[in-house]
Every structure is written in structure tokens, then in C-alpha cells.
Amino acid sequence: MASVTLKPGRERPLQQYHPWVFSGAIGATRDQPGAGAVVEVLDAAGAWLARGFYSSTSQLRVRVATWQHDEALDSAWLRRRLAQAIQARAPLITHATSACRLAFSESDGLPGLIVDRYGSFLVVQLLTQAMAARAHEIIGALVELEEPDGIYERSDAEVRAKEGLPAHEGLLWGATPPAQLRLRPIQLPGTCVEPPPLLVDLCGGQKTGHYLDQAVNRARVAAYSRGARVLDCFCYSGGFSLYAALNRAASLTLIDSAPAALALARANLALIAAPPLIEYEVGNVFQVLRRYRAEHRRFDLIILDPPKFVHNQTQSERAARAYKDINLLALQLLAPGGSLATFSCSGLLSADLFQKIVFGAAVDARREVQIIERLGHAPDHPVRLTFPEGEYLKGFICRVA
Ligand code: SAH
């Protein structure tokens, strides 16, 4: 059996059930494992620690999938883990047409596999050599467990490149999803409005078609939108605006650099029976906010939900400046007593550092800012205690004096 033996003293994270083994921690490799093969992980003295999947190209050499010696990583294991992940979401799926993340990679003990359900269709990301090699097993298990109409692949090209895998998108099984689907996101009890049906573009849209991670936050942020002039920056398909409109915002201004995103947002907001004043702006948020500042425009609720700015550690300083820049601009555009909902989805930027960046922006803007709520991803994106890296989305709802 192929195995990797760790260097002396490098076993601690694995003993604490952290699932990653980097190449630098490996002292020796026996029976050279193939790309995506199952591999045993041993400590420096040769004692068995865990079992995982090998990557022949990534610095992240082994992703551990079991710490039980008698658990084989075979198709029964895959089906079992998927069934557990799906079962855990059952309380969140209240409508037949729900959109929900069913499997969240390491956080669900399925390293490299993401499965999103959009009504009767599934969208998968196969992000490691191991999962790409097991596509048929994954499809088989999903067909059996979920009985979908179709399974579509939208694997993230950037992550696959690190694994030496080509970018891949396309139909894996069954019927191609229609161009647009109308779905209800998951909702937590007690949040303000009934989840509205959202239009989702599974094949052409960003990511797996929709940003499921913000499902609950949209309802939370909308609680601050009644009668407000709302500015939705990086709006994509207008999810935040849609909830704000349902909560009787006075006006909506949506900014995104992608015309296709604004077209989706338009279609989403067309579902509102009595829409507020709506303005769509195709442009770069960094520039548009500067223009608004020069025009002395004011808003009562500003949402900042930018894409990931930090892709690797070397970019973190530049990214911090970018986060500070937009937060400063937003604080300058807020009317007294206004609210700022500010997010970062950069996993490499900690919540602590993000808070410090917003602090820096507040000092420069000479505004007094209170954090009213701290937000993370929706409960279909669980955070495994032994895998804090899985927690990437953080946000604050702030009140500005
Ligand atoms: N708020 C959205 C998700 C935002 S994803 C939701 O609730 O679903 C980030 C969005 O920012 C994408 O739609 C992308 O097209 C857009 N974007 C990226 N860089 C931008 C920039 N500099 N200015 C404006 N939009 C940008």
C-alpha cells in the first residue's frame, strides 16, 4: 500500500484531525502513489495516523479523509459520507425548489467535492485529482441518493490548475438544466421575510450559478433596509437588493462590473410587485463610489460584497488596501445613522484582520462605527472545528453615528 511518512514532529495537526498534509511535512514516500490515489499517512516512527487522497502536483500533498484504520476509502465510503452530508441539510430544505449546498468539501469530510442542489438539478465541483478520478462513483451515489433530473459540473478553474487538472464545465449526467431556474434559498426561522424565488443561471452564471453562502445574510441585512436608500455594491444577481426591496427599501442602486450579472439582477427585481426606485450601474465599484462621493450622494444602507481579493499570501497587503479603500468610500457615502453591511470572502484574511481594516477605514473617514451583527456563511456551509480554513466568509453589519 502506498504511504507517506511524516518528518519527526509533524504529526500534531493530524492527531488533532486537521485534514491537510503539505509536501514540506513529508519525510518519505513509499510505493509512489498515483494522482488521486489512496495513501496511508504514518508518523516518523512508522505508526499509522490516517488515510487520505494523494495529489501528485499540489503542495497540499494529502487530504485526509479518515482517521479510522478499518475505514476503506472506497465507493461505499463516498456514498456514506454523501448521505450523511445530505441528511444533515434536511431541516434547511423546506421547499421542493430549494437551493442548498449539500456537500462542502473538507468541512463535510469529502475533501475536494462540492455539491450544490438547485431544485431538481445538482451542480458539482470536482476540485482534486482524487475527486476528478471518482466522477463516475460520485455521479452514481448522487443519482441514487437525490434522484436529480441532471448533474452539471462547474469546477473552479483556479483550484483545479493547482492539481494539474484542466478546467471543466458541462453536463455529467441526465438533462441539461434550463437557462434559468427560479429557486428559493434556505432560510432560518425568525429572519424577516419569506425567501423570495431567485433566478439562477446554473450553466452560465458565476461560481456554481449562485452565491448560496449569503442566503441567510441577505435576510439579516434586509432588516436594516426599511425606508432606506440602499446601495448594493458587487450585486451579482441582486440577492441583497431583492430582499431589501421586499423589506420596503425606498430606493436601490446596484453596481456590478459584469453586464450579465446586472441582467440577472434586473430579471430578479422584475419579480417584485411594487418595486422601489431602482438604478443599475455597470462599472467598477472603486471608481463608481469615488464618483458618487464627488457628487455628494448619500445612502442609508450600503452593502459591500466583493469577490475574493486574496488568492495567496503574497497578495494580502494589496488586498487589505483594496478592502480598506471600498470601506472608507462606503463610510463617506453613508448618511448619519446609516448602516454598512461589509463582507470579505477571502479565506486567507482572518475575521480579526478584517475588523482591523474596517477600523482603519472608520478612523480615516472620521466616523464612529459600531458593530451590530457579525455574520458568516449560511448553515449549509458548516465550519468543522478541526478545519478552520473552511470558514472563509465573514461580515459585519455596522451602524455609523
Ligand atoms: N452580492 C452578490 C455576490 C457578489 S460576487 C450576491 O449576493 O449574490 C462578486 C461580484 O462582484 C460579481 O458579480 C462580480 O462580477 C463583481 N465584481 C468583481 N469586481 C468588481 C469591481 N471591481 N466592480 C464591480 N463589480 C465587481
Describe the protein.
The chain is of the alpha/beta class and 401 residues long. It has three domains: 3-66, Roll (Archaeosine Trna-guanine Transglycosylase, Chain: A, domain 4), CATH 2.30.130; 75-174, 2-Layer Sandwich (Transcription Regulator spoIIAA), CATH 3.30.750.80; 186-400, Vaccinia Virus protein VP39 (Rossmann fold), CATH 3.40.50.150. 28% of the residues lie in helices and 29% in strands. The chain has eleven helices and 20 strands. It has helices at residues 12-15, 75-89, 129-133, 135-146, 157-162, 215-222, 239-246, 259-269, 285-294, 316-333, 351-365; strands at 3-6, 20-22, 26-30, 38-42, 48-54, 60-66, 98-104, 113-118, 121-126, 150-154, 169-174, 181-185, 198-200, 229-233, 251-256, 277-282, 299-304, 334-344, 369-375, 394-400. The strands form three sheets. A seven-stranded mixed sheet has the order 11-10-9-8-7-12-13. Strand 17, helix 10 (316-333) and strand 18 (334-344) form a beta-alpha-beta unit. The longest helix is centred in the C-terminal third of the chain and has 18 residues, at 316-333. It is globular. The N and C termini lie far apart (64 Å). The mean pLDDT is 94. It is found in: Cytoplasm. InterPro entries: PUA, PUA-like_sf, PUA_sf, RlmI-like_PUA, SAM-dep_methyl-trfase, SAM-dependent_MTases_sf. Residues 2-87 form the PUA domain.
